[in-house]
Specification:
Blueprint: H1 2-19, E1 22-24, H2 28-31, E2 37-40, E3 44-47, H3 55-83, E4 89-90, H4 93-102, H5 115-122, E5 126-134, H6 150-153, E6 157-167, E7 173-182, H7 189-200, H8 205-216
Parallel strand pairs: 2-4, 2-5, 3-5
Antiparallel strand pairs: 1-7, 5-6, 6-7
Helix pairs in contact: 3-7
Amino acid sequence: MKRLLFFTALIFGVSLTAQKNIYESPNFDELSADHKILAIVPFLTNLDLNETVSKEEQKRLEENEGYAVQNALETYFSRRSKKKKLPVEFQNIKNTTAILTQNNITYENIDVYTTKQLSEILGVDGIISGTLDLNILLSNGVPTEFSFTDYFSGGADYGRIGIKISDGDTGKLLWKYEKQINKKTGKNTTDLIDRMMKLAIRKFPYERERRRDRKKD
């Protein structure tokens, strides 16, 4: 029993540590004062799969994972906005994709554009972007069976995700949240984003701003 409690406490401690990987710019309020709409762009993905695939297939799979996170974030913010109105709106990702395509910006070359450039092209006040490092295809789902030994052998570690918000006018980083991906994080991309954002929502700057303005009223 003591051993079980020890392992549970250890894992809980690791979980709490992961939740603390949040950064907010000290100038957030100043830089985001006029923010009305943000665009979510596909995440840049790095896959390190056990099976061997061609370079073309690797690129296709990485792109799929990047777009899956973009879609999951839009779904999350859409649901959140219906429950509690946020001070910012989010550009429909279909419109985002269409505008990028019209400007010859693809998944393969989007990383050469600055936040300021993308914001101007998309007509938004800020950009939500991020990175994914995975050793599985998260969009296909992950094993959810629990095993204590996995946490020591590395069998439960599937990678890491980083979400960031950048100001369109200055290109400066406003907020960033990083989290380890494992069996307890979520069973697929949508579940992962839903769970991690629920953990981070009290630290989500626009949510805090909404609560602050509400108190003033």
